[in-house]
Specification:
single chain; alpha+beta; elongated
């Protein structure tokens, strides 16, 4: 009886010890290292090294780990792996023989690699990478739900587009013109009989040519917003004949045309400015060098050499004689077809334009006489409109068309194109915007918006003492530092 009682006590004690061991708590944790979460096209790759060397489990306990991506109700679960105590491990091996994802606690001396891949889904943009844990006790039974540990958050994904937002559009207000002086230039071919300097309004084509001059002047006088300040006339003669005689004719004919215009409009004499060029060698050179000249002149190259030869500077009679004697056929053509066009009068009607301050008035002027507007006035009109609106863009386009070589006009037009996302147009204007900090900054911003953040940052760093450049450079540095890293690791163990 005593022996049976002892055996019964031993069995009860053994069962109690087994139950205590089965319900013992797991000790230690799994450490995560070399975590990488990378989106490659339409796939997401996740890899990490896991160190479970410190994890200890009761002999009949098993923990199943399931990595997953979670975002609200959306979840993707990856392949699970399990770590088990001594008895539980061997029970599992005998059951299915799968040794790949069932490991024995206490025997994992080295970290093991874990890697998975899954198709990209848009909800993953801000998903969280977690590892769920399910504990099983003896006989394969899961622990009650209230005893189960919750998922362990490991990393937070952030694949939201990394936009470059720290940028300024540094428009420059053009300086106002104290007095707006403009001019209309044209050319007239007034005919004179041989060696005559007096104008005959009815001679040959003079009715038409003089009418052209009057029409130009009348168009200015009819504009209530302008006042004529003067008329400049420069007369030209052709190279045939003596230089001295040509100088006399060019000067006399220019004065005659000026006096004709002055008396016609009863202008003061000091409003007329005259000059003359005895022989229009520049016009002759232009024709000889032209495509047409190459077709009709047999000796175009030799003619150009003679016209451009500095040895004949001031010896125009000698040069003209050489053309006549060396190249008689070409000279004959020039004398009949080109020289008449070298006898012309270039004239310019100069006028002052009133200043405008009302944006609506400026916008009306943009439609009718944009040449009368200053850069500053066009800027006022543009800034009175909503950025990116048709009138806004049109004002900057007119400004750069009226002032094609002005750095400020090109800068502002380039910035307007940047705002509109028209990068090729912006580049064309910004190339002519000068070398101010604003221009260099805008070119750097164009590089950044086109995707070359590294080149943009390099340019911005060279712009010293310019606050917008410093702010933009700082954000670009941050963007470049985070390129390729689209997650933040929250924990390094679970």
């Amino acid at each position: 009886m005593m022996q049976n009682a002892f055996l019964k006590s031993a069995l009860i004690a053994g069962a109690a010890a087994a139950a205590l061991a089965a319900n013992a708590e797991a000790k230690g944790a799994i450490n995560v290292s070399d975590l990488d979460i990378d989106r490659n096209g339409k796939k997401v790759n996740i890899s990490m090294n896991l160190d479970a060397s410190s994890l200890r489990l009761p002999t009949n306990r098993e923990i199943r780990y399931t990595p997953m991506l979670v975002n609200g109700a959306d979840t993707v679960k990856f392949k699970s792996f399990s770590i088990a105590g001594h008895n539980r491990y061997y029970t599992g091996i005998r059951a299915d023989g799968d040794k790949n994802w069932l490991m024995k606690a206490g025997s994992l001396k080295q970290p093991f690699a874990y890697a998975v891949q899954t198709p990209w889904q848009d909800w993953m943009e801000t998903a969280r990478f977690e590892i769920a844990r399910e504990e099983c006790g003896c006989c394969g039974k899961d622990l009650p739900e209230d005893k189960q540990p919750g998922p362990a958050p490991i990393a937070q994904l952030d694949y939201t587009p990394r936009a470059f937002t720290e940028l300024t559009f540094p428009y420059i207000t053009p300086k106002a013109e104290a007095v707006k002086i403009r001019q209309i230039s044209a050319r007239a071919y007034v005919d004179f009989p041989v060696n005559v300097t007096k104008i005959n309004p009815d001679y040959r084509r003079n009715p038409q040519e003089l009418a052209k001059i009057r029409a130009t002047i009348d168009s200015v006088r009819a504009d209530k917003n302008v006042s004529i300040t003067g008329i400049a006339i420069k007369g030209f003669a052709s190279p045939e004949g003596s230089y001295a005689q040509n100088a006399k004719l060019a000067q006399g004919r220019t004065r005659a045309l000026a006096e004709y215009v002055r008396s016609l409009y009863q202008m003061r004499r000091d409003m007329m400015q005259t000059s003359f060029d005895p022989e229009d060698w520049a016009g002759l050179k232009e024709f000889v060098a032209s495509e047409e000249g190459g077709k009709v002149l047999r000796n175009r190259g030799a003619l150009l050499d003679l016209i451009e030869n500095p040895a004949y500077q001031g010896r125009d009679d000698e040069r003209e004689a050489l053309i006549r004697t060396r190249f008689p056929e070409d000279y004959k053509y020039l004398l009949a077809n080109v020289y008449p066009g070298l006898r012309h009068s270039d004239y310019a009607v100069k006028f002052s334009v009133k200043s405008f301050t009302d944006p609506e008035e400026i916008i009306k002027m943009m439609k009718t006489a944009p040449q009368n507007l200053s850069l500053q006035e066009l800027f006022v009109a543009a800034r009175s409109q909503k950025p990116g609106s048709p009138l806004y863009n049109e004002a900057f386009e007119i400004a750069v068309r009226m002032y094609p070589d002005d750095p400020v006009a090109n800068l502002n037009a380039g910035i307007a194109a940047l705002e509109a996302g028209e990068y090729s147009r912006a580049e064309r204007y910004l190339d002519k915007a000068g070398d101010t900090p604003e221009a260099r900054y805008s070119r750097a911003i164009l590089l950044a918006l086109e995707g070359d953040k590294a080149a943009a940052l390099q340019t911005l760093r060279k712009i010293k003492g310019y606050a917008p450049a410093e702010k933009s450079a700082k954000q670009l540095e941050e963007l470049l530092d985070t390129n390729g890293s689209y997650f933040t690791q929250i924990a390094d163990q679970f």
